[in-house]
Design brief:
151 residues; alpha/beta; Rossmann fold; globular; EC 4.2.1.10; aromatic amino acid biosynthesis
C-alpha cells in the first residue's frame, strides 16, 4: 500500500484555538482523522506530521522524494503555514527532491494580508488548494490520488 505524507508547518499544532474565525475550531487531531479517512477511501496509507522547525520539514520532504522514487509514496500534501511566504529552503527541497506535492492552505490566503499573497512553494507544487477549510486536506489527498494514478 502506497503512502501519502501530509506535512504541516509552524503553528498548525494550535488549530482549534488559534484564530478560530480564520482557521475554524477543528484541531490538528481532527485533521489527522479526516486525512486518515481520505487515505483509506483511496487505498492509501497516511504519514501525518507537524513541525514548527523548517529544517525538520526539509528533512521530511527530502525523505518523501526518496520514498516516491522508491515507489512507496505517491506524494505530499503540504501546509507550510507561514513558511509558504518566507522559505526559499522549502522551495529548494521540493524542487531538488522531485516529489509530487500539493500546496494546501486552510484559509484563502489571497483574501488576507498582502504578505500572504506570495508563495515560494507554488512554483514547485503540482497544484495549490486554498480556502476549503480543513476539508481541503481530504480534497488534496483525493486530488493527489487522482493525478498520480498510472495512465
Amino acid at each position: 500500500m502506497k503512502t501519502v505524507l501530509v506535512l504541516n508547518g509552524p503553528n498548525l499544532n494550535l488549530l482549534g484555538t488559534r484564530e478560530p474565525a480564520v482557521y475554524g475550531s477543528q484541531t490538528l487531531g481532527d485533521v489527522e482523522a479526516l486525512s486518515e479517512a481520505a487515505c483509506k477511501a483511496h487505498g492509501l496509507k497516511l504519514d501525518f506530521r507537524q513541525s514548527n522547525h523548517e529544517g525538520v520539514m526539509i528533512d521530511a520532504i527530502q525523505e518523501a522524494g526518496r520514498a516516491q522514487a522508491a515507489g512507496t509514496l505517491i506524494g505530499v500534501v503540504l501546509n507550510a503555514g507561514a513558511y509558504t511566504h518566507t522559505s526559499v529552503a522549502l522551495h529548494d527541497a521540493i524542487k531538488g527532491s522531485g516529489v509530487t506535492l500539493i500546496e494546501l492552505h486552510i484559509s484563502n490566503v489571497h483574501a488576507r494580508e498582502a504578505f500572504r499573497h506570495h508563495s515560494y512553494i507554488s512554483p514547485v507544487a503540482k497544484a495549490v488548494m486554498a480556502g476549503f477549510g480543513v476539508k481541503g486536506y481530504a480534497l488534496a489527498i483525493g486530488a493527489l490520488a487522482e493525478i498520480t494514478k498510472p495512465a
